[in-house]
Design goal:
By secondary structure, this protein is an alpha+beta fold. The chain is elongated, with a radius of gyration of 34 Å. It has ten helices and 15 strands. Helix 2 runs antiparallel to helix 3 (about 70-80) and helix 6 packs parallel to helix 7.
Length: about 500
């Protein structure tokens, strides 16, 4: 008997069954937890992907225009549908706009670990839509029921809880291959009106009667107030160099390398204007003082008609300003407007002497008949001269638009008579404490624009005028001619 008891005591057969019986609840519990973790992770991923998609769709519309929030809401409401599974709602469900909430932000906290506070949020969406730079999308939490019995761990515990997701996306826009110039928006609205007859920048671009108005730009100098009709310089790319000469080179070149972000540009005003005059005028085939800009990338435009002929010096030279006569009989550059009622004389009324210009330079040559009823912009006339083969036609005084053979070859890859620059709402920036004289950083851009240079810059002094005509702007208010310069990007931030 004792031997039988001793054999039974030492017998280990079937011990695994005992151990499995003891561990089975733990094994099943951990298996259920793993399954639940996988299910809830999949549910959260589905919801997060939905939140990301809604945020990106909305952010893509935040282009700084007054309709940005309206269009962003429409994108959120109509463009996105995401499926999610494993919720208590049953079979796969569709996450649509009704399952999310959104709020628009003007800024983000300095670091991601800081919460979004009231100062970051756009509260007046009607009037401050232009300031919306980010959108935060929050998914309304959906129910999740775990398989693992939570009451096993704690009496009264529930195995159901909610799962949600939050995403923040923003829109950035910039341009590359732009000249380092900014213009104070001549159509900036202040308290609902402006000195340009109440037209907005977008309206001016779409209405030829408005954007043919000549704008007289003057340089923002040290201590000079920046207001509508002024211009200044942006900080050139770091590898270009510093100083007035380096700045002038980036304006004169036909291959600018600068890239600028609409959210934050840096001004560099107060520069000596000496070579800057030359930088503008090489575009007209006017030789630079001191032989600056004497390589092919600084060549003139294909059409340099300016109402001047060479009266002194060798005709084999690239003409210099002091060798040109702008009063010679039989020559006429693109005329200025008849009157300048806006902005204290800084913007014309758009009524320029087209008939006199045409008869002086082209006699009885034909032009589009529509110009008899609707006066064209100067830029339209300039482009027509090129397309119709009239550049080499001599005026009654003998001027032609073809650059002198002694100059660098004309640049045909880009339009050298167009000046590209950032358009800033200078009045609003200064009212907010952002001085534009000197070195000001992180300034938002209203739009990037192209301007047609109608005549050479006559003086190297800081109060010299740069006469331009607005051609186009970037963004939804523009005509699309600057799309090749645009670098739009939508990205997730949180």
């Amino acid at each position: 008997m004792l031997r039988i008891v001793r054999a039974f005591w030492h017998d280990q057969r079937g011990i695994a069954l005992i151990l499995v019986s003891i561990m089975l609840p733990a094994i099943i519990g951990f298996s259920l937890l793993a399954i639940d973790m996988s299910r809830v992770n999949n549910l959260h991923n589905d919801l997060q992907k939905g939140a990301d998609a809604f945020a990106l769709a909305g952010a893509a519309e935040l282009d700084g225009t007054s309709s940005a929030i309206t269009r962003a809401d429409r994108a959120i409401a109509t463009l996105v549908r995401n499926r999610y599974t494993f919720s208590t709602s049953g079979p796969p469900q569709t996450l649509a706009a009704g399952g999310v909430t959104r709020r628009y932000l003007r800024s983000l906290p300095a670091t991601d670990n800081l919460p979004i506070v009231a100062a970051n949020v756009i509260t007046d969406e009607l009037n401050d839509a232009r300031l919306a730079r980010f959108v935060e999308v929050t998914v309304t939490p959906v129910g999740f029921a775990a398989i693992f019995p939570a009451s096993f761990l704690s009496s009264g515990a529930s195995n159901s809880f909610n799962v949600g997701a939050v995403a923040v996306a923003g829109f950035t826009s910039g341009v590359c291959d732009f000249t380092p110039v900014f213009m104070c928006n001549p159509y900036e609205m202040v308290n609902g009106t402006n000195a340009a007859g109440g037209y907005t920048l977008e309206q001016a671009v779409s209405n030829p009667a408005v954007h043919r108005r000549l704008i007289e730009l003057r340089k923002v100098g040290n201590g000079a107030a920046a207001g509508p009709g002024n211009f200044g310089f942006l900080e050139p790319p770091a590898d270009v160099g510093n100083g007035a000469q380096a700045l002038a080179q980036t304006i004169a070149t036909s291959r600018p390398i600068g890239c600028y972000n609409s959210a934050n540009v840096t001004t560099k005003t107060g520069q000596n204007a000496g070579p800057v005059q030359d930088a503008f005028n090489v575009r007209f085939g006017i030789g630079a003082n001191g032989n600056h800009f004497d390589s092919a990338e600084y060549g003139p435009a294909a059409n340099v008609r300016k109402g001047a002929i060479q009266t002194t010096g060798s005709v084999n030279q690239c003409a210099a300003m002091n060798q040109l006569s702008f009063t010679e009989a039989g020559t006429m550059g693109l005329p200025r407007d008849a009157t300048t009622p806006y902005q204290g004389g800084r913007m014309g009324d758009g009524d320029w002497n087209f008939s006199g210009y045409w008869s002086t330079n082209f006699g009885s040559a034909s032009y589009p008949s529509s110009w008899d009823t609707t006066k064209p912009t100067r830029y339209e006339v300039y482009r027509y001269e090129i397309s119709a083969g009239l550049v080499g036609t001599a005026s009654t005084g003998g001027e032609i638009g073809t650059p002198s053979a002694a100059c660098q070859p004309p640049v045909t890859s880009v339009d050298r008579r167009l000046l590209y620059g950032a358009i800033l709402n200078c009045a609003a920036l200064e009212a907010a404490g952002n001085g534009l004289s000197g070195h000001s950083t992180n300034l938002p851009v209203e739009a990037f624009g192209s301007f047609f240079l109608t005549e050479p810059v006559a003086s190297p002094s800081d109060d010299a005028s740069v006469m331009v005509e607005l051609v186009d702007i970037t963004g939804r208010g523009g005509q699309g001619t600057l799309d090749n310069f645009l670098r739009d990007e939508v990205q997730l931030y949180r």
